[in-house]
Design goal:
heterodimer; A: 343 residues; alpha/beta; Rossmann fold; 12 helices; 43% helix; globular; B: 455 residues; 3 domains; seven-stranded mixed β-sheet; five-stranded antiparallel β-sheet; 23 strands; 25% strand; EC 1.2.4.1 (chain B)
């Protein structure tokens, strides 16, 4: 019987379980950089399109949290594993490998969108990349993602379910119902709590009686650890360890990934609940893209090489914006399709 | 002298079998002593003495079946000074229930839904098919077992479905045949396991999620509606959710407002769901098999009071009833009565009574509430020119409201009288027996409504 081995990150534990300096090749670093910059540029343009009235409804941007989805993705076997998240989902979709054109066109509600324009920002899916949404009800994805893990175990196919949720969702009851079943049945679920410190406008210590979210599985015997979510390599390596356990049949694991959201909760955020200085301080000292740029510099990547990546990303995003504006609105006949699968 | 009375194991039990006596005449019993064992078709229980004294006489022999609740079963020489207990207070009570705590279905003899003499033979069933008397409970079990044999992706999960064999014994023996991987006992965690089931369905499995009752399913309603019903649409057709949510729905007997509710109208309003509410065992089996095969999320509403009732089920390999088709259960010319689930039985009994008074009622069993077979309803009304809808749930915004609106919209000129709705009174269901009976609609209310539309 495994004891409730809640462990802090290795450095705090006073023992060295992994090399203190995570290793990455120049090619890997460049790939992480490209993915993170793609998310940031994409989200910046999405924010602009929202301001222009081309995107409606809710739009929750992932800027500041890029290292989380990119770091986790390194452990995903594309098309085999499953990924699921809440409403702040654009970054996860791009990291998973979804077509930026289809994502941007879904944001603009066009026929070329990944859900034919019928889902919107919070409701996108892509079976080939294993992306199962995109869910608008806070916490719902945790039970659903546990079900994805159940299906993997049922089939015995060694797939893993990556279940993202935030510090806000971590107070939902169904999260704990899911934890209980996941550990009871040793399901291959990796729970990634993206702790960006604010549930909408409520700071974590104003909503959570305990703020050490990696310990939230303790009463179920699910181990957890805290990870620096602004360091893509730390996220990558922590995820890899958790996934190895899960694939070996050892059950679920909790990664509390400490990160920060630069933008408002959604586009209509009054920004009254935190100071501009707080946000600026994180941007200046903890930015995940600045962090990987330091690693790239240490790996002797040149400015020209970075510039080439930046230009490539810029072109991808520009194309997605063009596609999202030129793609037609869905045909009115689409109103009545996809309500039922015809038996 | 004190009589020991036949005890009730559950709110709906009316009779049972006295399987064993542990005492005989001349023995002295003490309060709390186990004196007998009784059982119904789903539960077994030990009976303990409440009073102490010498056993004068065993009144009902061991092995007697169909012993009515409150029948004196033994006589004690007791304290002559003590007032005689009233008959309504059984002198024995359950000590240990070795079976379900959930209400036990009333045995067949107490069935409220008498088979009408004029019931039509189902045209879907071949004339030479052998008919086998089967309880609804077993028909549902057979449907699940057949589909689980047919498709490895089908599995059952819910509270007490495996080792306990089902709170209402619907999953009896499934664990033994299919093992714990496919018959999964869950914690008491409806929201969580409903969501887990939906996720498993999104990943391509075909879960049957049993709610011990649909009252508890309300904890999971977000996943049924927001996660299961809407995801196909929100994903532009990419993510399917082939799942069946099933369990007993509607009023039980004397269990109070929180355990007695009809969710027909609630779920029938939701695009993306199919909602099925069968009446007899053949439909229960055939429609559940269709539901498990259907690639869409299904809400399957069984009736708590009907599990133990036997009906003819055709002995046909792979008996599947199509979803979305109502069934004319009795033909008539003067008035159409629509009903679903348990109310169909009341409607058939009402039709029988009305026939004695020269009124010919046609009974349409809706069977599926979404999609609703308005064609069958409207064709019937075009013939009878009058309509009464009957449902167990509340009337406002209910199934009857939808039936009536459909008829008014499409067959207004055929109506000779304003349609009427029969439904539960607009109050939470009370516990007191008399108030409960006043609230739940039955044969008399249907008869009265028909007479009103005939006036």
């Amino acid at each position: 019987m495994a004891k409730a081995a809640v462990q802090k990150s290795s450095s705090e534990q006073g023992e060295i379980r992994i090399p203190n300096t995570p290793q990455a090749s120049k090619e890997d670093l460049l790939r992480y950089y490209r993915e993170m910059v793609l998310i940031r540029r994409f989200e910046e343009r999405a924010g602009q399109l929202y301001g222009m009235g081309l995107i409606g409804g809710f739009c929750h941007l992932y800027i500041g949290q890029e290292a989380v989805a990119v770091g986790v993705q390194e452990s995903v076997k594309q098309g085999h594993d499953k990924i699921i998240t809440g409403y702040r989902d654009h970054g996860h979709m791009l990291a998973a490998g979804m077509d930026p054109n289809a994502v941007m066109a879904e944001l603009t509600g066009r026929a070329g969108g990944s859900s034919k324009g019928k889902g919107g920002s919070m409701h996108m899916f892509d079976v080939p990349t294993g992306f199962y949404g995109g869910h608008g009800i806070v916490g719902a994805q945790v039970a659903l993602g546990t079900g994805l893990a159940f299906a993997g175990k049922y089939r015995g196919d060694d797939s893993v379910s990556f279940v993202y949720f935030g510090d806000g969702a971590s107070n939902q009851g169904q999260v704990y119902e899911s934890f209980n079943m996941a550990q009871l049945w040793k399901l291959p679920a990796i729970y990634i709590i993206e702790n960006n410190e604010y549930a909408m406008g409520t700071a974590i210590d104003r909503a959570s009686s305990t703020t050490e979210l990696y310990m939230r599985g303790a009463s179920f015997g699910i181990p957890g650890e805290q990870v620096d979510g602004m360091d893509v390599l730390a996220v990558r390596d922590a995820t890899a360890r958790a996934v190895a356990r899960a694939r070996a049949g050892e059950g679920p694991y909790i990664l509390e990934v400490k990160t920060y959201r630069y933008r408002g909760h959604s586009m209509s955020d009054p920004a009254k609940y935190r100071s501009k200085e707080e946000v600026d301080e994180v941007k200046k000292t903890r930015d995940p893209i600045d962090h990987i740029k330091m690693l790239l510099a240490a790996a002797k990547v040149t400015e020209d090489e970075l510039k080439a990546v930046d230009n490539e990303v810029k072109a991808i995003v520009a194309e997605s914006v063009q596609f999202a504006q030129e793609s037609p609105e869905p045909d009115p006949s689409e109103l009545y399709t996809d309500v039922y699968v015809e038996a | 002298m004190t009589d020991i009375l036949m005890p009730a194991l559950s709110p709906t039990m009316e009779e049972g079998t006295l399987t064993k006596w542990h005492i005989k005449a001349g023995d002295t019993v003490s309060a709390g002593q186990v004196i007998a064992e009784i059982e119904t078709d789903k539960a077994t229980m030990e009976v303990e003495a409440v009073d102490e004294g010498e056993v004068l006489e065993i009144l009902v022999a061991e092995g007697s079946e169909g012993v009515k609740v409150n029948t004196p079963i033994a006589r004690l020489a007791g304290d002559e000074v003590a007032p005689a207990p009233k008959a309504a207070e059984p002198q024995s009570q359950p000590m240990t229930q070795t079976e379900a705590e959930a209400p036990v279905q009333a045995p067949k003899a107490a069935a409220p839904a008498a088979k009408p003499t004029a019931e039509l033979r189902d045209p879907e069933i071949p004339a030479d098919a052998k008919l086998v008397k089967t309880t609804i409970r077993d028909a549902l079990r057979d449907a699940m077992a057949e589909e689980m044999r047919r498709d490895d992706a089908v599995f059952l999960m819910g509270e007490e479905v495996a080792q306990y064999q089902g709170a209402y014994k619907v999953s009896r023996e499934l664990l033994q045949e299919f093992g714990p991987q496919r018959v999964v006992d869950t914690p008491i965690t409806e929201h969580g396991f409903a969501g887990l089931g939906v996720g498993a369905a999104m990943a391509g499995l075909k879960p049957i999620v049993e709610f011990m009752t649909w009252n508890f399913g309300m904890q999971a309603i977000d996943h049924i509606i927001n996660s299961a019903a809407k995801t196909l649409y929100m994903s532009g057709g990419q993510i399917r959710c082939p799942i069946v949510f099933r369990g007993p729905n509607g009023a039980a007997s004397r269990v109070g407002a929180q355990h007695s509710q009809d969710y027909s109208a609630w779920y029938a309003q939701i695009p993306g769901l199919k909602v099925i509410a069968p009446y007899d065992a053949a439909d229960a089996k055939g429609l559940l098999k269709a539901a498990i095969r259907d690639p869409n999320p299904i809400v399957f509403l069984e009736h708590e009071m009907m599990y133990g009732i036997e009906f003819d089920v055709p002995e046909i390999e792979d008996y599947v009833v199509p979803i979305g088709k109502a069934k004319v259960r009795r033909e008539g010319t003067d008035v159409t009565i629509t009903a679903h689930s348990r109310m169909v039985g009341f409607a058939l009994q009402a039709a029988e009574k009305l026939a004695e008074e020269g009124i010919s009622a046609e009974v349409v069993d809706l069977r599926t509430l979404r999609p609703l077979d308005t064609e069958t309803i409207i064709n019937s009304v075009k013939k009878t020119n009058r309509l009464v809808s009957a449902e167990e749930g509340w009337g406002r915004m209910g199934v009857g409201a939808e039936v009536v609106a459909s008829v008014i919209a499409e067959a207004f000129d055929y109506l000779d009288a304003p349609p009427l709705r029969v439904h539960q009174e607009d109050v939470p269901l009370p516990y007191a027996a008399n108030l409960e009976a006043l609230s739940i609609p039955g044969v008399d209310k249907i008869v009265a409504a028909v007479k009103q539309v005939m006036a």
